[in-house]
Give the backbone structure.
Amino acid sequence: QLEPSCWGNIYRMAIIQENGLRFISERYAVSEDIYFSAGVYHRAERVVLLDEVGYYYFENQSSLSKKYDPKMFERILRYYEVLKAQTATYELGDAVAFRIERTFLMKLRVAISLVVNSDLPRGEKLCLVREMLCYPLVRRVLEEYPSHTQEAAMRVLTGLMKKRNVLGVCWLLQLREFAH
């Protein structure tokens, strides 16, 4: 299984230079390292996987990624669109569709959680969450995604999201934040 994030990878510089590979701005779409890695993997003759950890991620609670950003949902939508376009370009077809949808739903959960746990007025939070849950792409992914493959907590959350149960989604994400 290939690691889509760059933090655990080493890349051959020649692949990057010869193909003009660059990171896209995270202001455009979240997870810029995934797009970069996809470009490298598509052009690599071989990939070597090591069962070794050389980096440990530290979650900084005061990080910008932990704060509400009004453009986050827009960037998550672009994340999905860019990855879908890349799978077509790299002729991956349905091979990675499941993973893209799973990651999209996880990023959606984070975006909703940032809204729910923000300092916004309660009514505005509920309105923003409702807008996200009613967005056509979100509706389609929620309907098509095989929820039975998710862990129990995410399956419950996905069920509430499918039903557009805004209060249930908000309550569950507040509970999750409180538990951490």
In short: The first helix runs from residue 13 to 19. The mean pLDDT is 85. The CA atoms of residues 68 and 119 lie 9 Å apart. The two ends are 29 Å apart (CA to CA).
